[in-house]
Amino acid sequence: MKSNRPKSTSPANQPSAQSQRHRVIQSHHLLTLLALALLAPLSIPACTSSNTLSATTKVAANDFKSPTAAAGSVGGTSSNKSEPNQATVAADTIRPLRSGPVSASDGIFDAAAEVGAPELDNSTPKEVGAPIFVDAKIGDVNNRAIYASTFLEEMSDRLTTEYAKLVKADARRGKAAWRRLATEEIQRKLNGIIEDEVLRAEALNSLKPEQKAGFFNWLNTVRSEVVAENRGIEAAANETLSARDGGTLDQYMKNREQQELINFILQTRIKARVNTSWRDIQLQYERQYREFNPPPLAYFRVLSVNTKDAAEVQRITDALASGTDFNKLADEKLPPRKAKADDDVAPDEEEQDAEKFLIASFEDEYEKHDFFGPKELNEAVHKLQPGQHTGPIEVRNTAYWIKLEKIQRMSMDLYNAQIGLDYSLTGGRFNYEQRRFVEKLKRRASFTDFDTMTRRLLEILEERVSTNVAAGNIPAEKPAEKPAEKSAPTDAQR
After folding, report:
1. Cβ atoms within 10 A of the Cβ of 422, count?
2. Residue of 406, 409, 379, 391 whose CA lies nearest to 302
3. Which of 64-68, 160-164, 311-315 has the lowest average pLDDT?
4. Would you say residue 188 lies in a domain?
5. Is this model's pTM higher than 0.85 or not?
6. Domain ranges, residue 183
7. What's the N-to-C CA distance of the chain in angstroms?
8. How far is CA 424 from CA 176, 419, 421, in A?
9. Alpha-helix residue ranges (DSSP H) falling in 207-305
10. What does the pLDDT look like over 110-130, one tens digit per residue?
11. 246: domain CATH number?
12. Does any domain span residue 236?
């Protein structure tokens, strides 16, 4: 049977692509040879030798000045130099000259160098006025610069007022006392800046890349919330923060970033290692037993009159017999209170008690303790109960009336003292571990010498303060703030 399928042409019978390209190349070669054969008769006269030599043409560098000039000499050589045409001049004007590596190196080895200061003319700029101090860089902490104006801005007014007061009292000793005070202020703030910076840098380096991204995204959210609280206007947020904290929104966010990073590193590196056990609290209570269970205190009011003044002795005796308050009679005998520099501040209860009462502590029983020197007085007060008085008791030409105001007994058991002990123990250990950790970071950190920065800051501050005081620019002294009442620490603070 004959198949109806078409006959497939074998690859051997089909011309390959490579053979086709070979044939095209051969055809190009043939065309090239034919073109050369046709041009050969035209070039023979130029190549034939002759007994007469052609004139020699000298070629100068200007002949190679531009491609246009070279194109003009293709038709043949000439013994006379032709004047450059307008096209050549135009081409030279439009196209800049290019220097090769050889021409560019001309003159390098001919240069001469002389050692010495440069020769300047005699005309020097004249000073307009006295130099004015603008600012000074004191040093660096982990490549973060510390500038004098920013550092001293907070304490400048307060220390100017102190300088004026101390120097006015005693010029020589006042300056020395002010330098000590200023040095303490500078060192305290400078040490705080260094500690905060090393803790911030350590916290930032300990974060993983994804943690850093999350942290800064959270900061952007906080910034947006602050702006939203001020009607969504950043300028309004700046005004609010300036009135409240004295800074801008950028400064607030910078401080917030540093605060959060420091809290993070302290929580992860220090607080996790600080633990206070129940046994530690018990041992601390035993060590401080006398503080939690002090000896009782007896409060006495004492009246004394010379027996030679019989009328006064009789007056006090009759007044007490008629029911006059003992404390009222005792207050009449109090000496006038001495005025103090801070007399506008009222004395506290402890100061008032020290002025009015004779306070005595006793270890044993009240009836067996000697509170006074004379035996007669001790025997009389042993019979008293709180609120009772006795007298007159004559001892060495003096008549005494004594009242037992109260007996104060203070005691705190372990159950009530455990919270305070836990707080003090944990806080003490936390501070100790924090100091160790910060000192370790300081040894690895890079910052300018502490004493050098302190000395520079003190010099700049003293110059500013003395200039202001000499010019009479003394800031008004701010009134002393009333001390806040101490309160028990909250759970969050603990």
Report:
1. 17
2. 391
3. 64-68
4. yes
5. no
6. 137-274+418-471
7. 106
8. 38, 9, 5
9. 209-228, 234-245, 249-269, 278-287, 289-292
10. 667 777 877 776 776 676 666
11. 1.10.4030
12. yes
